[in-house]
Design brief:
Structural class: mainly beta
Helix content: under 10%
CATH topology: Maltoporin, Chain A
Oligomer: single chain
Largest sheet: 18 strands, antiparallel, barrel
Number of strands: 19
Number of domains: 1
Distance between the termini: 35 Å
CATH class: Mainly Beta
Length: 438
């Protein structure tokens, strides 16, 4: 299942204040590190954030400990809150809060925690009301030459019918993700670093009353174990070459009745290059090949090239443009299709005017290609021919930074997308928000 999220360059190190419901991306990727990176690391603030020193929230400091908190209230209108053909319109009320803490000491030692709550209400369509929350703990210990990183993340989210790989349901489907990661970075006396790591994820879908067209989602409960090793060689400065090898085991907890096991084993090999920051440009990319073989011969196997790339351009301290692309294999929510290939690209531009007026815009496209259902489902209601699903989205936002603690925002998002078996349908979302920071 792949979730689509509005692409927006945040103004703080925390998550964006509000993610408009009309356009979504792989939400899981927003909480977990990029392929080949270690566990427990903290993301660096972009140059644009550092440049707006007079408007950057300071948080509270107690010795080595820094605490940050923020909250927002956004209201507006969405033309299709069901995210489906013929869906209902409604006013939107979104409330979000975030609390984070980080403590640093020594050269690279740090421990951090974060909790975020996002509540969305539709007064005219209460069946679509939902609350997401996430929590994360992580840290890094420096041994003087090597480092060890560990992190744990809990996500309480919902699936919508426009999520790529999702079922066409008329209400949010809540699910939980627990993720634990451990990595060790061994640095040689030369320029080579070796990073072995392991990641364990558990997916659990909450119960809702099934119907003939909407079965209980318990069959999607699964555990994913990914083991990998990354070899990183420093060419010069912060420029690196990467080689990443990974193995993945997926085990489903509640098999579908009278259906083959969906369990699978997979492997991938990728080579990459991180250009680092050279003047106004930064480029990094990983390309390789991925395979997934299912325990049941009825499902066969999926083989696909995989790639991740990102190009950032910072022509001034107040302007940032980013282009990113991704292609690979994802898990499906359908009973009759266990996996599919995903391709996505997005571009975003953010510009700060006079240091306290921030303009941003984005555009994105995401596409899922589903294989035909296995032969044993022919002549049944579950059989499906090769199919695809496409999402297009654009949007713009303006923020007025009143001071370090308050800001106002207004944004508009448009998407055109289809659920499996339907034509394209547009969704418009308008929001105005007020934000407070510690």
């Amino acid at each position: 299942m792949r979730k689509i999220i509005v692409f927006r360059l945040g103004l703080t190190a925390a998550a964006p204040i509000f993610l408009a419901d009309g356009a979504y991306a792989q939400v899981i990727d927003n909480y977990f590190p990029a392929i080949g990176s270690g566990a427990g690391e903290l993301a660096q603030e972009p140059a644009q954030v550092r440049a707006m020193g007079a408007y950057t929230p300071l948080g509270k400091r107690y010795g080595p400990l820094r605490i940050d908190a923020d909250g927002s209230e956004s209201e507006g209108y969405a033309s299709n809150v069901d995210r489906n053909v013929g869906g209902h319109s409604s006013a939107v009320v979104s409330t979000q809060g975030n609390l984070s803490a980080v403590s640093r000491w020594g050269k690279r030692d740090q421990v951090h925690g974060n909790i975020n709550v996002d509540d969305i209400r539709y007064p005219s369509r209460s069946i679509q009301n939902r609350t997401n929350w996430t929590a994360n703990l992580g840290g890094v210990h420096d041994f003087g030459h090597d480092t060890i990183g560990v992190s744990y993340t809990h996500l309480s989210l919902v699936q919508m019918p426009t999520d790529l790989g999702a079922l066409i349901v008329n209400r949010p489907v809540p699910y939980q993700v627990d993720d634990g990661r451990l990595s060790y970075t061994a640095t040689t006396h030369g320029r080579l670093s070796i990073i072995p790591q392991v990641d364990v994820q558990r997916y659990h879908f909450d119960y809702f009353t099934p119907t003939a067209n909407q079965p209980s989602q318990g069959y999607r409960d699964r555990v994913l174990v990914t083991e990998g090793v990354t070899a990183q060689y420093e060419l010069r400065g912060n420029s690196h070459v990467l080689l990443v090898m990974q193995g993945t085991e997926i085990r489903y907890q509640n098999p579908l009745e009278n259906a083959p096991s969906r369990d699978s084993n997979g492997a991938s090999v990728m080579a990459g290059y991180d250009f680092g920051m050279r003047g106004p440009l930064r480029f990094r990319a990983l390309v390789g090949y991925q395979t997934r073989r299912y325990r049941a011969s009825a499902y066969g196997s999926i083989n696909s090239p995989m790639a991740e790339a990102e190009l950032s351009w910072v022509p001034t301290r107040l302007t940032t443009a980013t282009l990113s692309v991704r292609h690979g294999i994802e898990d499906s929510a359908f009973e009759n299709v266990v996996g599919y290939t995903f391709t996505g690209a997005r571009i975003g531009v953010t510009h700060t005017y006079q240091r306290n007026i921030v303009f941003s815009a984005y555009g994105q496209i995401q596409k899922a290609n589903y294989p035909s259902a296995p032969a044993f489902l022919q002549n049944t209601v579950l059989y499906q021919e090769h199919n695809n699903q496409t999402f297009y989205g654009v949007g713009a936002e303006v923020q007025w930074l009143i001071n370090r603690h308050m800001r106002l925002s207004a944004n508009y998002d448009f998407s055109s997308q289809n659920t499996v078996g339907s034509g394209q349908f547009p969704i418009h979302t308008f929001l105005v928000g007020f934000h407070l920071s510690l």
